[in-house]
Amino acid sequence: MREAFPDSHIAWIVEKKSADVVLGNPYLDEVIVWDRTKVPGLIRGTSHFVKSISGLSKQLKQRKFDVCVDLQGLLRSAGVCLVSGAKRRIGFSDGAEGSVYLYHETYDPGGDDVNAQQRNLDLLKTIGVHSTNTAMYMPVGDEDRAFAQSFLDRCGLKDEKVVAFCPATTWVNKHWTVEGWSQVADLLHERHGVRSLILGSKANLEMAEQIVNGSHCNPVISAGQTTLKQAGALMEKCTAVIGVDTGLLHMSVALDRPTVGLFGASAWRCFRKKHNFIWVAKDFPCSPCRRPPTCKNIDCMQAITPEDVESAAAPWLG
Question: Are residues 55 and 95 in the same domain?
Fold first, then answer.
């Protein structure tokens, strides 16, 4: 968009929990952070949401946007488009939760075989932008890198070869097994002399501790101790990153790190393999199951073995 419209004002509206991925991006004129915190209770929660979206609406309408492009395709993101006051609201024709009814124009992305980055780029055809440059970018600053180096030094990983684990995400049907992660940590240590670093949020601490308790090589936990930018800086210092379909995995790809993705329940076939991004997945006729999962055991994820994961990462560890 910046190349196509060098003199335009480009703003990105992002929720506070994900703002780190966008703040500092040099192609933007402005990052508008929507502090959409959840409040318990139907009445209080609804009241808080209405107040929050009303405040955002006032903020957006002051800027008099011409176009609002919704890349997420959910009701809340389409709602942001609606309250922006933009003269053109654009989104995907397969948007979920009734979001399509809030757009002026829709774009049909075609089948599921289009990779996720190109799908988003193709939406820009509606405003005359044609691109196949699927490279992603995430800004990481000097302060974040200083934190990462200090953290690794403090944990005794200064001179170690480290692989980052991203084992958790919001949808449990995307998760692999705790036992699998523990065994991969041990395999990487035994065969390659590699230490493991477990990334994530505070909500992932219990899983991280279970992985550590199930292994013999004492992985290090950074989950719950970093911002997203600091986690990105830690990834930069790792030899490789292994993860399920979660935001941290996509950050790793954006940072151009050697990355192994573990897929099954989610739509993994739309991700483009690169020289330093590969996926490990088993072909099941029911995959992807999207949400909710169609089986109790998530057989497609259970079918991935620790040896599968170790062998996928091995070429980067020599």
Answer: yes
Q: Are strands 259-262 and 240-244 parallel, antiparallel or unpaired?
A: parallel
Are 298 and 247 members of one domain? Answer: yes
Cα 146 to Cα 91: distance, rounded to the nearest angstrom: 39
Q: How many domains does the chain have?
A: 2
pTM: 0.84
Per-residue pLDDT tens listing for the chain (318 residues): 999 999 999 999 998 888 999 999 999 999 999 887 766 777 776 777 778 788 888 888 888 999 999 999 988 889 899 989 899 999 999 888 889 999 999 999 886 667 788 889 999 999 999 998 888 889 999 999 999 999 999 999 988 899 999 999 888 888 899 999 999 999 999 999 999 999 999 999 999 999 999 999 999 999 999 999 999 999 999 999 999 999 999 999 999 999 999 988 877 666 666 788 888 988 887 777 765 666 777 888 899 999 999 999 999 998
